[in-house]
Amino acid sequence: MTLDGKVPGGPIEQKWDSYKGHINLVSPANKRKHTIIIVGTGLAGASAAATLGELGYNVKSYCIQDSPRRAHSIAAQGGINASKDYQNDGDSDWRLFYDTVKGGDFRSREGNVYRLAQLSGNIIDQCVAQGVPFAREYGGGLANRSFGGVLVSRTFYARGQTGQQLLLGAYGALMRQLNLGRVKIFPRREMLDLVIIDGRARGIVVRNLITGEIEKYEGDAVLLATGGYSPVYYLSTNAVNSNASAAWRCHKRGAYFANPSFTQIHPTCIPQSGEHQSKLVLMSESLRNDGRIWVPKEVGDKRAANDIPENERDYYLERMYPAYGNLVPRDIASRAAKRVCDEGRGVGATGRAVYLDFADAIKRLGEQVIREKYGNLFDMYENITGENPYRVPMRIYPAPHYTMGGLWVDYNLMSTIPGLFVLGEANFSDHGANRLGASALMQGLADGYFVIPFTLGHYIAGAKLSAVNTDNDAFKEAVDNVQKGTQKLLSIKGSKTVREIHRKLGNIMIQYVGMSRSEEGLKKAIEEIKRIKEEFWTDVNVPGSADTLNKSLEMAGRLADFLELGELMARDALNRNESAGGHFREEYQTPEGEALRDDKNYSYVAAWEYKGKEKPQELHKEELEFEYVKESQRSYK
Amino acid sequence: MQSWATVIWSSVGRKILSAITGVILYLFIMVHLLGNLQLFESSPDPFNLYANFLEKFEGIITIIEIGLLISILFHIVVGTTVYINKLKARPEGYIKTGSAGPPSRKTISSTTMIYTGIVIAVFIIIHIITFKYGPGIDEGYVSNINGTQVRDLYRLVVETFSKPGYVIWYVAAMIFLGFHLRHAFWSAFQSMGWTNPKFLPILYVAGVILAILMAMGFIIIPIWIYFTGGAV
Amino acid sequence: MSKNITVYLKIWRQEGPDSRGKLVPYTVDNVDPDMSLLEMLDVLNEDLTKKGELPIEFDSDCREGICGTCGLVISGIPHGKKKGIATCQLHMRNFKDGDVITIEPFRAKPFPVVKDLVIDRSAFDRIIAKGGYISVNTGSAPEANLIPIPKETAELAMDAAACIGCGACVAACPNAAAYLFVGAKISQYCLLPQGHPERKIRVRAMVGQMDAEGFGDCSNHAECQAVCPKEISIVNIARMRREYLKSLWP
């Protein structure tokens, strides 16, 4: 099957407008007759639910959290990009589009990205009208900062809590629709299966996380906005409950999973302190503006940082990349840190960390200046590590924090299952092989506020939807499927805890399918994952029962899916014999050690089709065409 | 839209009522204390004249008394409602309790408002029976000042405060009043929304100082009279 | 490297909303001071699982103090003694070897216990639903820079908007009042000009819902601002009360 992205024709600037002018519309009177199921209440899910409620659809919104306001979008710190050009520095839709395609290392779909750039300004307007307290200049206008190595200042922010403020705006809009009776909210519900009737997505099966009851809901379309899958690495910057299960179960029902190996590892995170660690905390990339990154020159040098004399330190980024120094892009900084730690020169108790040293900056600028610039980050670091970064260098290490891959969608955001739409981080569409900073929030809100209202209407108006209800056999089959899965997990009663096995999976994933990958490592990973999967299904111990709140059971179900997804990630990485963005294959690098793309053979989206239990997924390709942005090689020397 | 009764009797509305009535009572107590300070004069006459002077304006005084009575009743009803709601809002309490410390303003004074309030209410009843409805001219408590017969309230005060039991009770009640007023002062401003970050610490300190002054003022009088027998 | 410690825990266990709960003692040895308190509970839960006992259920998600999911009363203080952090940001180095730590759920009638340390805070959502937003439909927004907003105003609004909705203010309040939560939201929207058209309806509706949920009255103990992970000030409560008074004028 050839995958059709369904990008409308015409010049790129006009595609979206011309699309909107030609689509089918649902009459206002008919909208309330259509029930839309939306899973996830992050930026994409909440904005979609609110907007569709406003339009008059009958919306049902589900989340695993106790309140829609707690979705993990809330943790985004830095900001949101928009091509407003308030700084008069030459920004435009075109430049945002260009930066995003290039930043994604030419593995995204041009039409989608241009639409994203076009909508970016509307998002800011919408959020300001909602009362999002963005940072302002003394004149009362909105403030911007530059971010993520682009040449213009286009990032809007609300202190270090931009994601929180945007989400609370969308959540407020959602709660307003709840109050008006157009949206029903189902918190503490975990989607465990998708129901397909007559070839269309028509409902979901969820587990009520409080009572354990398996519940069925029917609808005319299902929108998945369930985020990414970074916790496949066990330790990531994601929330501990972030998971891929809803997306994965849709994959098993026929939705193709695209580019699963495209994951982003953020260079400046607080390193793991021990086996007990449950998550990693990210610190703003801006620290690299003044901090110098180094490790000891000697392998196994266990002296305290301040006891190591200057000439025995290796400022490796400055040495390897004299032009950009400590400010090389995320993927390059991350890989370099991994390399020096692999050499045995890592610091700290675990040896998996490098120093980020502010001593020079403090000497040059004074402690007060540093405190003003980074005080809150330094406090956060001290709270977590117990070390004072004004006195001893910070220790940092890269951590998984975003996944560019996800369920395949076309220009309408519809997956390969008719009626199943995928929004935000859960889909694969806009960031290619690498996401630029401050673009995740932009994509989530563009999808939810401004794209899905049109594309969903187009689908609903065009589809001949028969009436269905939850007595349908397909629902019964899905419920049985879920219940069997749950019972199976509870019946194993082995000797390993869910966390133990998840940690094992995470170790394999980060080692072989993390920052740098090789054919040999990936093959090993596939074998190891299979072994861990076997161990899981024979020796896991899930305590408690299914008819009550049982977090161990929730975690076990999610891990079962991560085990399958992890294998697919490794296979996708193995298939892609090139390096692109966050996907770095050791065999494919320039003599200087930079990522070497193979545009001739791999300028495609790898979309994987599920073929059944224990059978390998089948690869489908969506060829990518670059009409507007010329493919080029990055260099930061 | 809610009815006006609901709006006024909301938790915010109640608290504003509590603040307004509290301010009225606070002002009354201040005036009362200033009047009482005349007990320190070298003769009973100024105090008795003052008491007599007030009785001359019976009409206005009655209106003020009714106002005070209404304030007290509202204050009590609101205070009791707050207390009952508190019990309802946390039916199962903590096994281990604590305070996070500053900037918390939780003190023994703030957490005992209901109890100090009850003591003060009982005190007020006894106080009114003892003095307002106590023996007057007919019972022989007469003083002759410049040819006019006035009630010798001074003598009643001195006699009352010569009883050690009464003095102890009175002093104790005034300590309770001090605690009540300590939290009351800044809290009234906060309840009416008349605070800002700069003003708040000043109010808080002022509340403490005023409470100490007021309590001390009321406490010194009976003790001084007990030990000295007053001006006579 | 600091030495590992032993702590003695007393943790609230409660099977369900209607069952009676009690404190159960647990000893955790070999606690790495670099662990967070929740990670220490994770470790304890793994041990319990291996021993065939039921793990202790508690809520937590982002583990970096922003989602507002976690919330435990640690020896009498919501989110623990350390200032300006959520439970998930509390590390074991703040405890000494041999410490007894009592862990209870947030307690208030509108926050019923679901199981062990997990509570139901949907009352907060219902309060927000009554007016914790500006009624603007998608697509109808004017150009973002149309209304200039003074930097100071934006900063004050952000101070209030920083609320993570964890409910520690309610848990710490001797009266179980929700004033800091509601006051912060009201403040955000009465400071910003976008919030002005609905200000009267908003403050009355949200206060009305807060009362209907069964939260207690505010007695100005200000314990809320001392436990708030975002250190939101009770000045926001005063502002809400002003806003309420203003709403009484025509």
Q: Would you write up a description of this structure?
A:
The complex is a heterotrimer of chains A (637), B (232) and C (250). Chain A is built from 17 helices and 19 strands. Chain A has helices at 15-22, 28-31, 43-55, 93-103, 110-129, 162-179, 245-252, 316-320, 330-342, 359-365, 367-385, 440-462, 473-492, 498-512, 519-539, 551-575, 599-602, and strands at residues 35-39, 58-62, 80-81, 155-156, 183-186, 189-197, 200-208, 214-218, 221-224, 257-258, 263-269, 292-296, 313-314, 354-357, 394-403, 406-407, 420-422, 604-609, 618-623. In chain A, a hairpin with an 8-residue loop joins strand 18 (604-609) and strand 19 (618-623). The longest helix of chain A has 25 residues, at 551-575. Chain B is built from 9 helices and 2 strands. With 232 residues, chain B is mainly alpha-helical. Chain B has one domain (14-87, 106-228). Chain B starts with a helix and ends with a helix. In chain B, 71% of the residues lie in helices and 3% in strands. Chain C has 250 residues and is α+β, with helices and mostly antiparallel strands. Chain C is 34% helix and 14% strand. Chain C has helices at 37-50, 122-129, 151-161, 168-172, 179-191, 199-212, 223-227, 235-248; strands at 5-13, 22-31, 72-74, 77-78, 100-105, 113-115, 118-119. In chain C, the strands form 2 sheets. Chain C has a 5-stranded mixed sheet. A two-stranded antiparallel ribbon of chain C has the order 6-7. In chain C, helix 6 crosses helix 8. The longest helix of chain C is centred in the N-terminal third of the chain and has 14 residues, at 37-50. Chains in contact: A-C, B-C.
